[in-house]
Specification:
390 residues, mainly alpha, Serine Threonine Protein Phosphatase 5, Tetratricopeptide repeat, 19 helices, 3 strands, 72% helix, binds zinc ion, iron ion binding, membrane, transmembrane
Length: 390
């Protein structure tokens, strides 16, 4: 439920007041009572909207006292108690609602659901699980109860049950749950991998891909598993798949993947893959790895030329450090040329570094502003220490 959607729960109270007012028409006494009630109701609503929950509770307790039959007021109070963290009070209220005779089926279900939510809030997961499982069995409010059950099984790290209920939720609600199910299978795969059960781990990796064909985590677990079993070819496929599905994970797989290529002597494939990644990935990691391979296979000069060309397009401090390191190892090093390259890279880096930063919101700028362009506060933008901009 969104922040205020639950306020709609209270609307029937106001509507009932209006209906009574209409029906009683000329009856002065009844009309007065009703208008007092709906005035009280709107006062309570105002307190709620102003986040004055103490006063709201007071008002709704008054309404509940006058209007003992209004179940909706009880629901509203229960909700307020829980929101304020008074879970014990909410539990007592919802328990008495559940036990109350004469409730409609719909009201009874809502009361059970609310009680289950109280139990969850109180950390009484077993009790909550029992209530929600009953609701699912009866088939009412199943999607919401299933959703709660999924969170309970996640908290208990019972992944098999979490998968089962996520699938059930998917078929009841139509909402796709594949990405979540894939994560749960990865949890099981990881557990099997660490427990020395590779076949089980493979099964769960397969299931994870079946649930979400772009699951990055399944590829990572598969890569680690196959690598540890000495199946470098399978590990390479898994790691390459990770990078192609989500390039942001490239730094995570680069080192183990290159180890696999080297053990198999597939250096041409390694170069091809790194070139492909350099095209797509804005960071410096694949550039540094390719420079390392070039240095070993073609010599320091080739690596330096490649690195200098790349650093002109993507200046980076780590790249610059690698460039200096390589230059020191270069027997034919031309110091003046090296310094010119370094000066160019450093200038590029400085252009991108903000000289001033707002102390309040962190906004970085190259020029000084007395009023921060980010948070509009005055005098909060100050020079950054250590950034040489003069
Ligand atoms: Zn600011």
């Amino acid at each position: 439920m969104t922040e205020y959607a639950w306020l709609l729960l209270l609307l029937p109270v106001a509507a009932a007041s209006g209906w009574l007012a209409g029906r009683r028409g000329g009856e002065r006494k009844g009309g007065a009572r009703v208008s007092r009630l709906s005035n009280t109701y709107f006062r309570g609503l105002n307190y709620l909207l102003n986040e004055q929950q103490d006063k709201a509770i007071e008002v709704f307790l008054q309404i509940a006292a006058v209007d003992k039959d209004t179940v909706e007021t009880q629901f509203a109070l229960g909700h307020l108690f829980r929101r304020r963290g008074e879970v014990d009070r909410a539990i007592r209220l919802h328990q008495s609602l559940v036990a109350r005779p004469g409730l409609s089926d719909e009201q009874k279900t809502r009361a059970v659901l609310a009680l289950g939510e109280d139990y969850m809030r109180a950390g009484l997961l077993d009790r909550a699980e029992t209530l929600f499982t009953d609701l699912v069995r009866v088939g009412v409010q199943a999607p919401q109860a299933l959703k709660h059950l999924i969170s309970i099984y996640q908290a208990e790290r019972d992944w098999a049950k979490a998968i089962e209920h996520a699938r059930q939720y998917e078929s009841v609600s139509g909402e796709p749950m594949g990405r979540l199910v894939a994560q749960f299978h990865c949890e099981l795969a990881e557990k099997a991998r660490l427990g020395g059960q590779p076949e089980q781990a493979r099964e769960h990796i397969f299931e994870a891909y079946a649930a979400d064909s772009h699951c990055v985590r399944a590829g990572l677990v598969e890569g680690m598993l196959e690598q540890s079993l000495g199946n470098d070819a399978a590990a390479i496929r898994a790691y390459e798949r990770v990078a192609r599905h989500d390039i942001e994970f490239l730094p995570e797989i680069l080192e183990p993947l290159l180890g696999c290529y080297e053990r198999r002597g597939e250096m041409a494939r390694a170069r091809g893959f790194l070139m492909e990644m350099i095209e797509q990935y804005p960071g410096i990691s694949p550039v540094l790895e390719l420079a390392r391979i070039l240095q070993r296979d073609e010599g320091t000069r080739a690596a330096l030329e490649f690195l200098a060309g790349q650093l002109r397009q993507r200046p980076s401090v780590r790249g610059e450090a690698a460039y200096i390191e390589l230059s020191l190892k270069d027997p034919d090093n031309d110091p003046a040329a090296t310094l010119r390259t370094l000066r160019h890279i450093t200038e590029q880096l400085l252009v991108r570094t903000p000289g001033y930063r707002c102390q309040r919101c962190g906004f970085g700028t190259r020029a000084h502003h007395w009023q921060c362009p980010g948070c509009k506060s005055w005098g909060s933008v100050k020079p950054v220490h250590g950034a040489v901009t003069e």
